[in-house]
Amino acid sequence: xxxxxxxxxxxxxxxxxxxxxxxxxxxxxxxxxxxxxxxxxxxxxxxxxxxxxxxxxxxxxxxxxxxxxxxxxxxxxxxxxxxxxxxxxxxxxxxxxxxxxxxxxxxxxxxxxxxxxxxxxxxxxxxxxxxxxxxxxxxxxxxxxxxxxxxxxxxxxxxxxxxxxxxxxxxxxxxxxxxxxxxxxxxxxxxxxxxxxxxxxxxxxxxxxxxxxxxxxxxxxxxxxxxxxxxxxxxxxxxxxxxxxxxxxxxxxxxxxxxxxxxxxxxxxxxxxxxxxxxxxxxxxxxxxxxxxxxxxxxxxxxxxxxxxxxxxxxxxxxxxxxxxxxxxxxxxxxxxxxxxxxxxxxxxxxxxxxxxxxxxxxxxxxxxxxxxxxxxxxxxxxxxxxxxxxxxxxxxxxxxxxxxxxxxxxxxxxxxxxxxxxxxxxxxxxxxxxxxxxxxxxxxxxxxxxxxxxxxxxxxxxxxxxxxxxxxxxxxxxxxxxxxxxxxxxxxxxxxxxxxxxxxxxxxxxxxxxxxxxxxxxxxxxxxxxxxxxxxxxxxxxxxxxxxxxxxxxxxxxxxxxxxxxx
Length: 568
Fold this sequence. Notes:
single chain; alpha+beta; 6-stranded mixed beta sheet; 5-stranded mixed barrel; 7 helices; 23% helix; 35% strand; globular; disordered C terminus
């Protein structure tokens, strides 16, 4: 009878062999394509990249004390990048994507599937890559020829001229298999128990506990000589609940726990305690007064500060946005200029695995273009120094800094990973709160605000619309200037223009905290983190939330322990 250790060793050996078998097949098809793929009379590819992402997932969902969903699944996807031309000028400029409509003179009548075989079958993988490579080559060649034709009439301005693709050193890295345990019995039991907590609170009419575990195996090779195998795991427990305020406003609250391994997730007791706090916050919000739109001083808690910088600064420093005519290009041409208060610095560091005892979601070794993730100082003492860079270069920067990221098989672009906000003007929180009240008095405001929790936000970076951002605060406290008393309020959301808002910060706290989550943009959803201190802003604008007041359920919930009427 094999021991658990022996069984684990055999599994690791099998996984290692399967990954190397896949990499071997990818290298062989890549070599064949680079040597022989060429349409008579036209350019051959100068660069090809193959990437296989094999995702294994487990999930459990509990509601009302019962198991509602349990599943395990696996998905393997291929991403193929074929470039025609040269590093200086290639087919990636313009719209190289295959047209949506098929047939006729506008595009192909068949699109190859991007699924990869889930078993170690080199011949099947060869064939899947062959079809995708042929399709991508034709699309790249077509786009390159269109670009050359456009150059007959359209003169390229000096601003538009630039390198298409950076030259990077090939990497060879094969990571050892990473354990991916999932104690289904434990998580089913704990998810049901956590969801049962809500039974004592009939005012909360719906809730959910979701446990997820994901393992991503990435196998990548390219014509530059890269051979890469990496593995990443991410575990999470999400607790969510909704209720309505006494006036019918829909209210939600949540707790999210992330970890790189199953053993790093918090204990049931800790999650039960946090769920209790979440419930207490929701019940307090039900009867909290609604405040009117507000412009004035405010303190953002560390997590809220992180969200603010993510939306106002981080997205606008993504490299592709600097040369895109459809983008607002907030920071284009600003390298060397002061863009933030001189005591603030912003760094993005995908190589940081943890901060304190917290796992950082944005950790990775290599980005999706096989470039090592690099710690990058974006803003130093208020002065812009760099951008988040993929292999799509920005004028003045000739190499990627390892921030080309994408979900599944989407096209990578520069994205944030672990965004750190640093301050040289730190004060204890008690002093920061005192400064808040003094600033409110100076502005002759009857109260100031403290935003202790933020669910997230969004921002508009395009030229089609206003350069603005929105944050969704959850726990907002009104501080009476005369008495210092705090009162929970609701019904507002943060709005503003990025540079104006961020430059109103005058001091920060001396304690830093982590905000973990996922960020969505053109290249899909990727895991990210922010690490930031509390921040005092002299002028923050809040507008009323969209009015959506409805009745609570008319009858009391049959599952809830208390049977008092729910519709009152």
